[in-house]
Design goal:
Number of helices: 4
Family: Belongs to the ribonucleoside diphosphate reductase class-2 family.
Structural class: alpha+beta
Order of helices and strands: EEEHHHHE
Protein name: ribonucleoside-diphosphate reductase
Number of strands: 4
GO molecular function: nucleotide binding; ribonucleoside-diphosphate reductase activity, thioredoxin disulfide as acceptor
GO biological process, one term: DNA biosynthetic process
Helix content: 25-40%
CATH topology: Sufe protein. Chain: A
Strand order of the largest sheet: 3-2-1-4
Mean pLDDT: 81
Distance between the termini: 43 Å
InterPro entries: TSCPD_dom
């Protein structure tokens, strides 16, 4: 049996400039929320932070809850957890068709973090003015 840790893993501090990708995520209620995902420069496929940018009524309780959820998920990622590690502990809601979507917006956020980014063609990224690959840039 392993002993409990007396302190968390050290926090992985993100550099001021890092790869960021903005994605639209559909909610079960029909909204599309925008999430900006920051990636680890040393492990470019590993998300280390997430920010909510738009989708719910400004100033609403739901907007604040999603913003706070993003902060908490970011802290988990920066302390070494991977999205799949977080996702397996979140609630799911069994549907009549047998599907098991996440029961909260937190689950949707973590599920999106677990999705791989689309592959980028460096020439496309340099020449395109918009697109999924172009959204991943140093910040």
């Amino acid at each position: 049996m392993t002993a409990y840790k007396t302190s968390p893993d050290p926090r992985h501090v993100m550099p001021p400039r890092r790869l960021t990708e903005t994605r639209g995520v559909a909610t079960p209620e029909g909204h599309t929320i925008s999430l900006s995902i920051g990636f680890d420069p040393e492990e470019p496929d590993r998300p280390r932070e997430v920010f909510y940018s738009a989708g719910f009524k400004s100033g609403s309780q739901l907007e604040f809850q999603v913003q706070d959820a993003c902060v908490l998920v970011s802290l988990l990622l920066q302390h070494g957890l991977r999205p799949a590690d977080v996702a397996k502990s979140l609630s799911r809601d069994e549907q009549p068709d047998g599907s098991m979507p996440y029961a909260s917006h937190i689950g949707l956020i973590v599920e999106e973090l677990a999705r791989p980014s689309p592959p980028c063609d460096p020439l496309e990224t340099a020449s395109a003015s918009r697109g999924a690959c172009n959204s991943r840039r140093g910040r």
